[in-house]
Every structure is written in C-alpha cells, then in structure tokens.
Backbone:
C-alpha cells in the first residue's frame, strides 16, 4: 500500500477509528481543519510563534502539509502561507489542500508540489518555516535542512513539531515494529536527537530551544490531563475525579510518553 491507500483502509477499520480521529485523517476535510485549529496543539503553536515575534501576516512555509490542516489553519489566522506537499492525493495530499483552499475561499494560499529536498522556492523568502510530523520522513535529512535554510530569511525561524526521536538503531527498530501504520506502507522513520541537532547546525541554523515529549502540549496532545480524566472515569467511575488520583495518572502517562520508542520532540531554530 501507499500512504493514500493506507489511510483509505484504516478509515474503514473499527480498530483504527481513534487513530483516524486523533490524527485528523477523516474523510471530512473541513472537519479535520476545524478540529485542528480549535485544538490545544495549534493554539499553543500560535502562542509560541507570537512569543517568538513572528507577525500574523508573515510569509510562512508549511513543509509536508499533508491534508492541509495546518496550512489552512495558519491561512485563516492571517499568515501568508505556502503549502509544500508532494503527494497528489485528494484525501491526504496536494489535492486535499486544493479542495480546502476553494472551500475556505483562500486565493492567497500558495501550493507547491515537491519534497523539501527538491523545492525550487526562492532564497531568503520566508519569515518562518513550519514542519509538522514531517522532518523524520526526510529521505536526506542534511539536504532537507539545507534547502529549508536556503528559503528562510536571515533572522527567520524554523519550527519543526512532533518529530520522532530514538536513542539508537535498536530503539528505532522497536519503534517501527510498534508503529500502527508502518507495516502497511513502510514510510515511517526516526532519527536520534544528535542526528537532528547536527542537521540543524550543519545547515547553518542556531537551535533556540528543544521541547521534549512532555515539555509542551504541542508534543503530547491529545494525550493530556483531560485524557487521563476520561480514562479514569471510564475505568473507575465518578470517584476517579479525585485530584490526587488524576495527578498520579498524569505522572504515569508522562513517564510513558518520555520512554516510548520514537517519542515526540519539537525544535525551534533561527537562521
């Protein structure tokens, strides 16, 4: 299967419905956008960007834009967005973004059908580059980062979010075996923290901050305190609302998020 076929398949499988919902992969493209832009992850992303002094009308490149949830959300928030997505699919790729662009009447949203390693966008053009769950898919991490550096303005920012980090090759093999979709399309990947950092630095970026698995809701959404409360209520009933019980559940979840193979990290870098 390819990525498009994998998503079409899991949408029909009851055992994957939670994943489809939480990953914004439903067939209802507008619903995906609305849920994403109103969710904790994107709200915190906007707050973080604002704290980094990126204006709301800034030129923003969304790398690996997928089905368009973040590109559309940023465009609706006022950014001048270019969506970079090589997949042509009308459900999870370039075609889906085109549908959403029309549905939301966003004529200013630009679209580019290429990989980051191959993009021919102009030098020193974007105030900010954003990549959600994308960098770990790079076929050539060094070239991926060098090309992003090229199109970023001097003083511009790179924000890569929710990228899988492994400790070594054994950890990577465990991550790939446990990943729910890798067995279908074989497209998952992960790098070590040092490999990511080297790619940033060798391209010329200065790393401003690295956010670990539980350092920000950007990484752990939708798995947070509210998820803990829901699970505890389902398992133990109303009495599970006790704050001490909830805190214990959250501490246990944080430990799991910190130790999972392929745990999620966010990186903030400056050109």
Residues:
């Amino acid at each position: 299967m390819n990525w498009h076929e994998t998503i079409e398949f899991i949408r029909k499988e009851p055992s994957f419905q939670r994943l489809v919902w939480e990953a914004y992969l439903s067939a209802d493209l507008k619903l995906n956008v609305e849920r994403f832009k109103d969710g904790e992850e994107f709200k915190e992303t906007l707050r973080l960007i604002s704290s980094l002094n990126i204006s709301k009308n800034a030129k923003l490149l969304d790398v690996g834009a997928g089905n368009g949830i973040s590109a559309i959300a940023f465009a609706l928030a006022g950014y001048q967005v270019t969506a970079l997505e090589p997949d042509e699919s009308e459900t999870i790729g370039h075609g889906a973004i085109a549908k959403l662009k029309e549905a939301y009447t966003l004529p200013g949203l630009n679209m580019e059908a290429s990989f980051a390693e191959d993009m021919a966008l102009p030098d020193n053009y974007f105030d900010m580059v954003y990549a959600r769950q994308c960098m770990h898919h790079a076929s050539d991490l060094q070239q991926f980062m060098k090309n992003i550096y090229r199109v970023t303005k001097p003083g511009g920012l790179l924000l890569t979010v929710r990228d899988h980090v492994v400790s070594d090759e054994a950890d990577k093999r465990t991550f790939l075996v446990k990943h729910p979709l890798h067995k279908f399309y074989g497209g998952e990947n992960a790098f070590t923290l040092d490999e990511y950092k080297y790619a940033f630095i060798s391209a010329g970026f200065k790393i401003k901050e690295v956010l670990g698995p539980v350092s920000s809701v950007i990484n752990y959404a939708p798995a947070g305190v509210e998820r803990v409360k829901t699970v505890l209520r389902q398992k133990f009933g109303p009495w599970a609302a006790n704050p001490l019980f909830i805190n214990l559940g959250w501490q246990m979840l944080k430990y799991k998020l910190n130790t999972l193979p392929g745990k999620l990290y966010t990186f903030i870098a400056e050109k």
